[in-house]
Amino acid sequence: MAKYIIKRLLLSLLILFSVSFIIYVLLRIMPISYVENIFYEQQQGGANLTEEDLQRMLELYGLGDSSVWGVIKGYFTWLGNFLKGDMGKSFKLGIPVEQVIRDKMGISFGISFVSLILEVIIAVPLGIKCATNQYGKFDYTITVLCMIGISFPSFFLGNLLIKWFAVDLGWFEIGGLVSSSLPHDANFITRFFDMCWHLVIPVFVMVVLNIGSLMRYQRTNTLEVLNADYIRTARAKGLSEGKVVYKHVFRNTMIPLITTLSFTLPTLFGGAMITEEIFAIPGIGQTAYQALKIGDIPLAMGYNMFIAVLTVMGTLLADIMYVVVDPRIKLGQ
User: Fold this and answer.
1) Could you say which of 8, 206, 321, 332 would form a disulfide bridge with 115 (CB–CB 3.0 to 4.6 Å)?
2) Residues 245-280 pLDDT 10s
3) Contact between 215 and 123 (Cβ < 8 Å)
């Protein structure tokens, strides 16, 4: 196990190095530039600026040399700082990128964690029920509903629910985490429940969009186990269908389920860009989306590396969880 983990860690470092280089190059060649946008905005505002002033601004932000060698040099400068724990300062916010991630990550984690719990609570029993009633009315109904949910784009479903419940019915405010009518001296409990009320629709959107794939995955795994020889043996011994399904079948569907949940690590901490943007939730997802739109290279770079590290950790965790759940599995040395 130790040898396997060391091998995977070394491979992960190589993957992260390659990913970071590709992301940096892509960000540098984007047609959007925060510095150029600020420069042209100042020009339109009446400032007497020349191309020499633009070049000085680019050099000030470390973007002066746009040649191939300049981009490579810029990458290794960023990499050296990153290995020291410095991801630079956000162009727009003017604060360290790691501070932005730390401050914004909590909101995104809370929303994603609650959504994941609800997805598991709903999708796993539905998947088992569909498998035990294969090709029945319940199976067809739930499968069709889940496929509809998977097919909805997040921006479409989010805006549709905003139109119905916020605009037409007035049950919710359109965006943010705090009601405009909330008193400034409101206590913690009042603020907490007010925030939870604002998150009802965003959480619902995330659950609807993700529950279908998890349900179908659980249904497929359950069907495979139901056809196993030891399940037929358990039934032949006279065990009730409930014990067969929830004691023997469900236990053996946990292996792929836990592996799947291990891959949700980047989603838990990385936020949901589109959903957070639609509902104006100030999480790390919306912050990163705004950074990409304006060409805030340090923040966009830091966020993408944050996601890359979480993805590598999730993959390694999934492999380890295989062995923890099923000791029969041996990892290659």
Assistant:
1) 206
2) 877 788 777 777 777 777 777 878 887 888 898 998
3) yes
